[in-house]
Design a protein that fits this description.
By secondary structure, this protein is of the alpha/beta class. The chain is built from ten helices and nine strands.
Length: 271
Amino acid sequence: MVVSQDYATEHVAVGQTELMLLEGGTGQPVLVLHGIEGHEGWLAFHAELAKAHHVLAPSHPGYGQTPAPDWITSIPHQAVFYNWFLQRRDFGPRSVDVVGIGIGGWIAAQMAIMCGAPLRHLVLVDAAGLRPPGGDGPETTDVFVTPWREVIERGFHAPGASSEYQRLYATPLPEYGGVREAGRTMSVKMCYRPYMFDPSLESMLAKIDVPTLVVWGDDDRLVSAECGELFTSAIPGARLRVLANCGHFAHLEQPQVLAEVVAEFCAGGAR
């Protein structure tokens, strides 16, 4: 275990795989699952949440810092892996809140479908996994054919005004090599065909019995805003919160606002 001033770096055995995660803060546990951008370290969003919560921020298997076992080739497999992690850490019934961003939201929804017992609250932030009846629309970026710099920029409403964008992405972003390429490769393996959605997911969402908040940036150009409405209508009792002047990467563009929204919702107690 490596400890910094605000968080610790852990490696936890889940089956035969060593999961890398960052942990910080004390209080109600919150598992934060990153999106297609990959694991970008201890973020301002994590730090805000950690002021009143115990934040667990892992790197998904295959995204450069946690190896991918051969059996993980899909989003449902990632969900099995993380439910296994919760079991490994002895989280009891209704004991952990889960926040999933982008494809992390898709993983989180699959976790709740498979075994929602440990989950206390579910927050889906600009989650992938669904497809509007008419398709994604011309304004939606295909992240697998677009240069990575453009993908990242289109994930923000105003990248130049974001301190996290400046901190993480102001330097050149290589198209090849490093942990980011590993993450993109894993995303292609899991999400390329069909593109970023599972045709069976929408019907299965009705099984979720965890209090759920759907959060969406009003300028998300990576996942259609219509998907937020689909998640909200498909999950029993779910609520929708739209963030103004915000793109897909709400946790990077508006970390304090999103942390406050998550904290307020999770303070409501378990169902």
